[in-house]
Amino acid sequence: MCEPQRNADDVELAKFDDLSRHWWDPEGACRPLHEINPVRLGFVEERSGGLAGLRVLDVGCGGGLLAEAMARRGARVTGIDLGEGALDVARLHLLESGLEVDYRCIAVEDLAAEQPESFDVVTCMELLEHVPDPRSVIHACARLLQPGGHLCVATLNRTPKAFALAIVGAEYLLRWLPRGTHQFSRFIRPSELDGWMRDSGLALRGLTGMHYDPLHRRYYLGPGVEVNYLAHAVRED
């Protein structure tokens, strides 16, 4: 059973529980997550100076795509989520991969109260735009980091271009994602994210855009944060 929940949207949780059976199908409804996973992993590994031996927390881990990838690079990974269905899939997949990941159904705020300053790296990918209070998530992530620890975040910018590509294009025209996956009002401007980080004792160290090459069906990092972007911050001593 899940531990007590807060800062969660039941509608959003239901959306992702409905996707649970597709998490590890690279050609199914979660195909975009499979395509961005190598980019996310590379960003986290480069920004943290390598993952081997580090204690890493993946907030909103879903079915475990990034959590397993980081464990494969030698990290000691904990994955948390409030979706029981996704966590069931994540735990089951460990039987196939043979990797070790500690999966827990717990809110990040509750884990921060339980285990402050416990992690070298915290990742929070494609989660902030799905929760009622993203500021609270950032604050909890900061509490979970050791001084000098790294936070890596991926989210969507609240711009007309992001609305056109991430919602109209990806959900309605190309049908890469189920309709209703995103709400434009919950997209987050980099300036907002930076403010929450500073309020939480974090120093923003870098922003980069995540772009899609439809010809080669691959994502890549580069200038321009108008749609998808990745942010790296460090907890100040």
From TrEMBL:
<keyword id="KW-0949">S-adenosyl-L-methionine</keyword>
<feature type="binding site">
    <location>
        <position position="60"/>
    </location>
    <ligand>
        <name>S-adenosyl-L-methionine</name>
    </ligand>
</feature>
<dbReference type="GO" id="GO:0061542">
    <property type="term" value="F:3-demethylubiquinol 3-O-methyltransferase activity"/>
</dbReference>
<dbReference type="GO" id="GO:0102208">
    <property type="term" value="F:2-polyprenyl-6-hydroxyphenol methylase activity"/>
</dbReference>
<dbReference type="GO" id="GO:0010420">
    <property type="term" value="F:polyprenyldihydroxybenzoate methyltransferase activity"/>
</dbReference>
<comment type="similarity">
    <text>Belongs to the methyltransferase superfamily. UbiG/COQ3 family.</text>
</comment>
<feature type="binding site">
    <location>
        <position position="125"/>
    </location>
    <ligand>
        <name>S-adenosyl-L-methionine</name>
    </ligand>
</feature>
<dbReference type="InterPro" id="IPR010233">
    <property type="entry name" value="UbiG_MeTrfase"/>
</dbReference>
<feature type="binding site">
    <location>
        <position position="40"/>
    </location>
    <ligand>
        <name>S-adenosyl-L-methionine</name>
    </ligand>
</feature>
<dbReference type="GO" id="GO:0032259">
    <property type="term" value="P:methylation"/>
</dbReference>
<comment type="pathway">
    <text>Cofactor biosynthesis; ubiquinone biosynthesis.</text>
</comment>
<keyword id="KW-0808">Transferase</keyword>
<keyword id="KW-0830">Ubiquinone</keyword>
<protein>
    <recommendedName>
        <fullName>Ubiquinone biosynthesis O-methyltransferase</fullName>
        <ecNumber>2.1.1.222</ecNumber>
        <ecNumber>2.1.1.64</ecNumber>
    </recommendedName>
</protein>
<keyword id="KW-0489">Methyltransferase</keyword>
<comment type="function">
    <text>O-methyltransferase that catalyzes the 2 O-methylation steps in the ubiquinone biosynthetic pathway.</text>
</comment>
<keyword id="KW-0831">Ubiquinone biosynthesis</keyword>
<dbReference type="Pfam" id="PF08241">
    <property type="entry name" value="Methyltransf_11"/>
</dbReference>
<feature type="binding site">
    <location>
        <position position="81"/>
    </location>
    <ligand>
        <name>S-adenosyl-L-methionine</name>
    </ligand>
</feature>
<feature type="domain" description="Methyltransferase type 11">
    <location>
        <begin position="57"/>
        <end position="152"/>
    </location>
</feature>
<dbReference type="InterPro" id="IPR013216">
    <property type="entry name" value="Methyltransf_11"/>
</dbReference>
<dbReference type="InterPro" id="IPR029063">
    <property type="entry name" value="SAM-dependent_MTases_sf"/>
</dbReference>
